[in-house]
Fold this protein.
Amino acid sequence: MKFIDEPRVYLVAKTALNTGGLSEYLRDIGSPAWTPDPEVSDAENLIEAAGRMCYRSWQPYDPEKPEASNPNVTRVRQGNKRYISHVLEAAHGSVLEHASMAFICRGVSRVFTHELVRHRAGMAYSQESLRYVRLDGLSFWLPARLRGNEEARTRVRDALDFLEGVQKELAGIFGIEEVRDFQTKKELTSAFRRLAPAGLGTSIMVTGTLRAWRHIIALRTSQAAEEEIRLVLGKIARICQKEFPHVFQDMECNKETGEWTFAHPKV
């Protein structure tokens, strides 16, 4: 067995803008005086486009461009940051659902994943399957309460060594190495996993809309949240703010508590 130093988070995908399709749409509605900002992320340009389409606020009203402008709109907010700032202030959160980010979280426990997958709206998950992946070795991340106590740490190691030994003993009892039928292997692997601890290290891919990430970050980095999920969501929060500074412009971290909060939490 091995202790995990710290869970890792990898950004593996984010929304990309199909500029050809968007440009074709803008031409079809009369070529409004608006184009995506090349200095802004694709996701944030997409969010701005969604909002401007909703209100037909690409530009101030022009009677010669009836599909590209709105007679109710005589002024428009210029600049992506300013535009998205208003979206956040107005809690027009639905447009944030058009953009998403995907992460792989590695070295996290099934305690963490059991909590994370409770968030369903706007989220997608793919987790390492222990019906297929046999446990030859156990990995484990120790919470601070256990990590800071040498006696507790020793007891945890002893327990994990025992459970790892059970996995190997069961594999020997059923001769799984000699089994050729994959269905049988899968049934045995699935049965063996019942002896694995909830704190077992695993990997999960999680994709969420930017609106969903705002909600989960606020909820799961609070001081009331469990230690491991606070740690991992804190890492995700930093990546979100780096990748999409306009969407997360109202998010701040309390340096003392590690809690991330939003000026506009109802988005």
Residues 150-173 form the longest helix (24 residues). The beta strands are 2-3, 8-14, 100-109, 123-127, 139-140, 201-209, 251-253, 260-262. Residues 71 and 109 are 55 Å apart (CA to CA). The chain has nine helices and eight strands.
